[in-house]
Amino acid sequence: MIRVLVPTDFSDHSYNALSYAHMLFQEVAVEFTLFNAYEASALQLVGNKSPLRLGTIYKSLKVKSLEALKTLKKDIDARNEIKNHTYVFQTYEGHLRDGVDAMSKNDFDFIIIGSKGATGLKEIFIGSVTQSIVSLHQEIPLLIVPEKANFRVPDNIGFATDFTRDYAKEELAPLLTLTDLWKSTVRMVEVYDVPGLSPAQKTHLQHLEMLLMDVNYRFHVIPEFSSLENCINAFNNELEIDLMVLIDYPKNFFERLMRENVIKKMTFHTTLPFLILPGRN
């Protein structure tokens, strides 16, 4: 059974992420942990400094959180006919980032979270809350589902890499799980700033090909674009990629895209889901 943690704030984009997860794992048994973090607002805290009063406020918030999770479950049951999916609830008192950090100590196979850019700021690639989850560099694969992403059968899974590091079988296990589920083609994409592979990169590529020997794969190279829009367009349109996978190495291509000075220049909202795999230390 696959175990999936799904943080939710009951918004449309978090529900969309859950729907995507249902479809992605529709053929296998899954236990979904529906997770909601709650915090008292500044208005609720003003004038309520006594421990007893604060305890009452947080108890009420927990009850509302649990009731909202139960309502979500009823909605899922009404829409979802996948019988091998089960659900458990979990609430957390505090910020979502801290809650995910605490929950990630459990034995989950994936974390799946919806992403929404800040209201009115179209230049934001993924929302600030999702960014805070990414910055945790967890040891659990993290699937980011943009708010406007619709599920497409992952016939083509992109694997963005620069071959500067060697690969481990355990790193690629989530990718291999998905390719086995959907009989997907893996499109290895090297995003380069200098064309050609060094001897070390060629060795790493050969090792990667050995690890993917039971998988249908292709190899592509594209230049490192100055704009995210051009890069994602290449992934979406030219390579017809349905899901992009990256390994969370320090200073990888994705991390460079996420830097603040780059984010400010972004004008494109992707509909391409990103799966971030934990890298070896």
Automatic annotation (TrEMBL):
Gene3D superfamilies: 3.40.50.12370. Residues 3-146 form the UspA domain. Pfam families: Usp (PF00582). InterPro entries: Universal_stress_UspA, UspA. CDD domains: USP-like. It comes from the Bacteria. Belongs to the universal stress protein A family. This is Universal stress protein. It comes from Dokdonia sinensis.
